[in-house]
Design brief:
Helices cover 32% and strands 20% of the residues. The chain has nine helices and eleven strands. The protein is an alpha+beta fold. Helix 1 (128-137) runs antiparallel to helix 2 (144-157), helix 6 crosses helix 8 (252-263) and helix 7 packs across helix 8 (252-263). The strands form two sheets. It has a six-stranded mixed beta sheet, covered by helices on one side. Strands 2-9-4-7-10 form a five-stranded antiparallel beta sheet, with helices on one face. The protein has helices spanning 128-137, 144-157, 176-184, 192-199, 203-214, 218-235, 240-246, 252-263, 267-270, and strands at residues 21-23, 38-43, 49-54, 59-65, 68-73, 76-81, 84-88, 94-98, 103-109, 122-125, 166-168.
C-alpha cells in the first residue's frame, strides 16, 4: 500500500482544502524577452498548488512528473498524470491544480509559428523523446540553429494521447447541483432516488439528463469522477484504504474494481511506470498494492 504522506483525508473533505496554496495567473516565461517559438521550464510545488482561472496569448503544454495535474475548463475537468500532458490553446480560460512534490513542467508555443493547432484542450502523450526535447529547450544557452532543429522535432513528435482523461460536467441546471456537490465531495453516497427527491424532480429526469449531457449514467459518471479524484489522492500520498474511504467505497477491493472499470487497470498498474521518476521527485504511488 501507499504510505501516507502524513496529511489527513476524510470522507467529505475536498483534497483542495488541505494545505493548498493559491496563486494568481502565472507569468508566461520568456515570451517578452526572447522571440522563441517554444519556451519551457519547470518548478516543484512543495504543497498542493492552485492557479486562478486565467488564459494566455500563447498555447500552453503542461505536464507533471511524480504527481497529477487537474484543470477545469468550462464544463470539463481534465486530470493528467505522469506520461501525459495537457495542451491548452491560446485564449482558453482555465484554472489548474498540481499535487505537492511533483515536478510541474510547462512549455509555451507562439501561435503564429506553431504548424498545428488543437482547437480545444487536449491530452498529449508525453513520450520520453518529447519530454527530453522540451527539457532541452528549457536551456538558455542554445543558439538559434540548435533551437530551431529541436523545435522542428517537437512539432513532428507531439501527438494527442490515446486517452483523454476528461470528465464531462452536465451543464444542465436540473442536475448541476448534483455534479457540483459530488465535485466537492465524491464520497457522497446518496442514491439517484435520494438526489431526485432532494431536487424535487423525478428519478427518470435525473437519469435522462445525465445520459443526455454526459453520455454516462449517473452511476457511471460518479464512478468516473471518483477515479479522477483517486488519481490526485494517490499522487498526494494517501494509501488505498484511505482513498477508498474518502471516495465512499465500503472496502478497498470495491474501490480497486471500480477504478479498473473506469481506467482499464488497477491503481498500482496505472502508476507502475512512475517508478522511473527522476531522483528527488516525490513518487508515493509507485508502491500501490492491488488485488
Amino acid at each position: 500500500m501507499v504510505r501516507s504522506s502524513g496529511a489527513e483525508a476524510s470522507p467529505g473533505t475536498s483534497p483542495r482544502s488541505t494545505g493548498v496554496v493559491g496563486h494568481p495567473a502565472p507569468d508566461v516565461p520568456g515570451q517578452a524577452a526572447a522571440p522563441f517559438v517554444i519556451t519551457a521550464g519547470f518548478r516543484v510545488p512543495r504543497v498542493p498548488t492552485e492557479w486562478a482561472p486565467h488564459s494566455h496569448p500563447v498555447h500552453e503544454l503542461v505536464w507533471v512528473r511524480g504527481g497529477t495535474l487537474t484543470s477545469r475548463v468550462e464544463d470539463r475537468v481534465f486530470t493528467v498524470s505522469e506520461g501525459h500532458g495537457l495542451w491548452m490553446p491560446a485564449g482558453v480560460a482555465h484554472g489548474g491544480r498540481a499535487t505537492a512534490g511533483a515536478q510541474f513542467h510547462d512549455a509555451f508555443f507562439a501561435p503564429d509559428h506553431t504548424p498545428f493547432a488543437f482547437g480545444e484542450p487536449t491530452a498529449i502523450a508525453m513520450t520520453p523523446l518529447l519530454e527530453s526535447l522540451l527539457t532541452h529547450l528549457a536551456r538558455t544557452d542554445l543558439d538559434a540553429a540548435a533551437r530551431a532543429r529541436a523545435e522542428a522535432v517537437v512539432f513532428d513528435v507531439l501527438r494527442p494521447s490515446e486517452r483523454q482523461f476528461t470528465l464531462q460536467l452536465p451543464n444542465d441546471t436540473r442536475i448541476d447541483p448534483i455534479a457540483e456537490a459530488l465535485l466537492d465531495d465524491p464520497g457522497d453516497g446518496r442514491s439517484l432516488e435520494e438526489w431526485a427527491q432532494s431536487l424535487g424532480i423525478s428519478d427518470r429526469t435525473v437519469t435522462r439528463a445525465f445520459r443526455h449531457a454526459t453520455g454516462l449514467s449517473f452511476a457511471q459518471w460518479r464512478q468516473m469522477l471518483r477515479a479522477h479524484r483517486a488519481l490526485t489522492l494517490l499522487s498526494e500520498g494517501f494509501d488505498v484504504l484511505t482513498v477508498s474511504e474518502v471516495l465512499g467505497y465500503a472496502q478497498p477491493s470495491s474501490f480497486i474494481a471500480a477504478f479498473r472499470r473506469s481506467m482499464g487497470t488497477t491503481p498500482g498498474a496505472f502508476f507502475g511506470a512512475a517508478d522511473d521518476a527522476p531522483d528527488g521527485v516525490r513518487n508515493p504511488v509507485s508502491g500501490v498494492q492491488n488485488s
